[in-house]
Design a protein that fits this description.
The complex is a heterodimer of chains A (247) and B (231).
Chain A: E1 3-9, E2 18-24, H1 33-46, E3 69-70, E4 73-74, E5 95-99, E6 108-110, E7 113-114, H2 117-126, H3 146-156, H4 163-167, H5 174-185, H6 194-207, H7 218-222, H8 230-243
Parallel strand pairs in A: 1-5
Antiparallel strand pairs in A: 1-2, 3-4, 3-5, 6-7
Chain B: H1 16-41, H2 48-60, H3 70-100, H4 115-118, H5 120-139, H6 152-157, H7 163-190, H8 197-226
Classes of the chains: A alpha+beta (247), B mainly alpha (231).
Bound molecules: FE2/S2 (inorganic) cluster.
The site of FE2/S2 (inorganic) cluster has 12 residues of chain A, from loops.
Amino acid sequence: MNLTLKIWRQDGPTARGELVTYQVPDISPDMSFLEMLDVLNERLNAEGKEPVAFDSDCREGICGMCGLMISGDAHGPEKTTTCQLHMRSFKDGETITIEPWRATAFPVLRDLVVDRTAFDRIIQAGGFISANTGAAPKAEAILVPKENADRAFMAAECIGCGACVAACPNASGMLFMGAKVTHLGELPQGQPERAQRVAAMVATHDAEGFGGCTNIGECSHACPKGIPLDVISQLNADMRKAKSGRL
Amino acid sequence: MATSTLPASTPAVRSSIGLKLLMAGSGLLFVFYVLAHAYGNLMVLGGPDAFNNYAHHLRTLGEPMLPYSGFLWVFRLVLIAALALHVYAALTLWGRANGARSTKYAVKKAAASSLASRTMRFGGIALLLFVIFHLLHLTTHTIRPQGEQPTPYANVVNSFDKWWLVLIYAVAVIALAFHLHHGIWSAAQTLGWTSTTAARRNAKFLAHFIGSLVPTAFLIPPLCILFGIVD
Ligand code: FES
């Protein structure tokens, strides 16, 4: 396949960036999207030019490190992570625009790499449970009903990649937060801190500069793990109950 | 574990979810209001007596416990307060959303969102402008294309025999339809009533049902007048 790429290049956090056009010939449809970028970078290296900076780690769709806005779709046209996206999802001769996640809370560090530590700070504010460490408790010591366990697992699939924020017209982090609040709120272990958790996470979310949700649904559509919009409803309900002292 | 410093706490009501709850609560009040208003408008189809009686009855409602027009004024004050909160929350959230993405995408697809959801803000402004026009037209009679009229019924009938006035109202009703289709579902979601797939489906259904029913009911009287079915 022969492709034209328009890639956001930016030297540093405060530098001005721009879209730069590259021609990449002879791409196999079986390559992953990141392998295609690796091919481009090898060539740029050989030419003595600065390679394109982008994030990745596991390349198995489980760590949440990768994430690119690909021709206007977060993680590209398939429901998966950028590392699990293959070039067969594109047409020969296609022009692909590649941009970093755009959110004030996710400042660009370089080229396509953004700083997502705002998510870490939301987790630090409330995305934890307090438990005694040491002797592992018996697995059956705390029973969890099947439906709650299933729902907690569904929400726990969130890998924190930030596609929800990237796709949201308001750059809101509420699908991420909803997934965490649902994940811990469905389990007995998550109950003691439930009210503080939601209040602290929402306060941090707002302070980090994420926008508010308008229930549009772009987040859930972009989510590589298919986290449904109803976790935001659960987040809203928890916040309302926490603030009226009913949680 | 390293603990992060707590962010400066804003009052809960000014948090993004607090503002959303304000939008949802005031919005639901408007939903009940437009349901009642659309129902009241249909009295026009009953002829001059039915409609004039209805208009008179609205003013004597609650008498003698309340003074003449008392109920109407209480109702209006509640609506004005709700409108102020709705607009305040909307503008604050709009401003924050703009700030949350200071650099726009060169290419961005709207892959999943409905047209109704994407037109909430500008549709809301259109509705606000229309409400002002509507009050000047049929409440204060400051704008009076129908001329001086003796009764509420005459005011209505001699207004909507003009095509351009019907057109303005029809456009506003379509904006309302969009606003309701997304707004009702959105309010349910914000109030946290849609945490299951079934609840979400029901909320969407209700939003589409009321969002179609109210605009239809609003359009019937002006169209009937325009086409001479009522005169
Ligand atoms: S690199 Fe780990 S999810 Fe893509």
